[in-house]
Amino acid sequence: MTTAVTPRPDTGAKRPRRRKGLSPHLFLVLAVVISVFPFVWTIVMATNTTRDIYKSPPKLTFGSHLLENVRGVLDTVDFFGSMLNTVVIASVTTVLVLFVDSLAAFAFAKFEFPGRKILFGTLLVFMMLPLQLAVLPQFILMSEIGWVGMLKALVWPALSNAFGIFWLRQYIENGVPDELLDAARIDGAGFFRQYWNVALPMIKPALSFLAIYAFVGAWNDYVWPLIVLTNPEHVTLQVELAQLNVGHNTDYSMVMAGVLMASLPLVIVFAVFARGFIAGATEGAVQGS
Predict the structure, then answer these.
(1) CA separation (Å) from 273 to 127, 133, 159, 166, 213?
(2) H helices present in the chain, as ranges
(3) SS3 state of residue 188
(4) Per-residue pLDDT tens for 77-119?
(5) What is the C-alpha separation between 252 and 59, in angstroms, rounded?
(6) Dmax over Cα atoms in the chain, in whole Å?
(7) Which sign, positive or negative, has the C-alpha torsion 270, 276, 280, 214?
(8) Are 257 and 70 in contact (CB under 8 A)?
(9) pTM, 2 dp
(10) 41-45: long-range contacts, CB 8 A cutoff, minimum separation 24
């Protein structure tokens, strides 16, 4: 009677794999720590006093002065009024950017028309130019049409986002098959129906990324609102918070509390749209494997 001998698992072959997989994990952990540290440091400074911030070595633990610093922010500036203005501007800008940029990108990616390459090349040139170069022409234009001091002066100049059109054009060109558009044309679908019913549902991950990009850009914009918003009732949050950092005796703990309060909506927006972006990216990876 013979007994079956089971071979021993080759544990020596698995150890090198574990060692090889250890370095990427260490790199990712280090990258996460570096990315999260500024936010954690902001919370630390917002929960302590300015005297604790100036200590050497600095205090690295959370304090108990957060409510006091938040109360100081609310008493010094019109936080909620300026925040409402910023929410309206960032939300409207994001929705319009997604619509206008995706429509233009769809035309550039899937349709031939006279001057297509020249227009797209011009778009790339404008994307490489600093945004500060457009401040003076935009202000002159807003002054001519009487929009200086109004919130819509922040929305309309941001609609034709060169990066957004370029990003979506590249995504549509590779992510929307021509066969589906040909089938839609055979069924009698026009340009807008092809865009709305065929292309738009297939580029949701790219739209999620662009939504985050556009919202964060509109939320953090400081220079253009500072120049064009002459009405104190229409001031955005970043311009309002800048009043906390004035003078020689700046209360940096109160400034950091204001920064922390202004950052919370961005975290919420990122959590909402990043879920769709990651889900779409992983779905594409599974389908391609």
Answers:
(1) 24, 31, 19, 20, 10
(2) 11-46, 50-53, 66-76, 79-110, 116-128, 135-144, 152-155, 162-175, 178-186, 191-193, 200-202, 204-220, 223-228, 237-241, 252-288
(3) coil
(4) 999 999 999 999 999 999 999 999 999 999 999 999 899 999 9
(5) 14
(6) 101
(7) negative
(8) yes
(9) 0.82
(10) 42/256, 42/259, 42/260, 42/263, 43/260, 45/252, 45/253, 45/256
